[in-house]
Design a protein that fits this description.
Pilus assembly protein Flp/PilA, 2 helices, rod-shaped, transmembrane, mainly alpha, membrane, 68 residues, 88% helix
C-alpha cells in the first residue's frame, strides 16, 4: 500500500469513530429523561396536593358541624 492509501484509511477510520461515538448523545438523553421525570413528579404532587387539600377541607367542614 502506498502512504497516501494508509493516510486515507486512517482518516476514514478516525471520521467513522467520531460519528459512532455516542457519549454526548447519551448524556443529553439521560438529562432529558431526568427533566421529564422531575416534571411528572411536580405535576403529580401538585395534583395530589390539591386533591388532598380539598379532602381535608371537606373533613374539617364535616367535623365542624358537630358541637363537642
Amino acid at each position: 500500500m502506498t502512504g497516501l492509501m494508509v493516510s486515507m484509511l486512517a482518516f476514514v477510520a478516525g471520521v467513522k469513530d467520531k460519528l459512532t461515538s455516542e457519549k454526548g448523545a447519551t448524556a443529553t438523553e439521560y438529562s432529558l429523561l431526568v427533566a421529564f421525570i422531575a416534571f411528572l413528579i411536580i405535576v403529580g404532587v401538585g395534583a395530589f396536593g390539591g386533591a388532598l387539600n380539598t379532602w381535608f377541607e371537606n373533613l374539617a367542614a364535616h367535623v365542624g358541624r358537630f358541637n363537642f
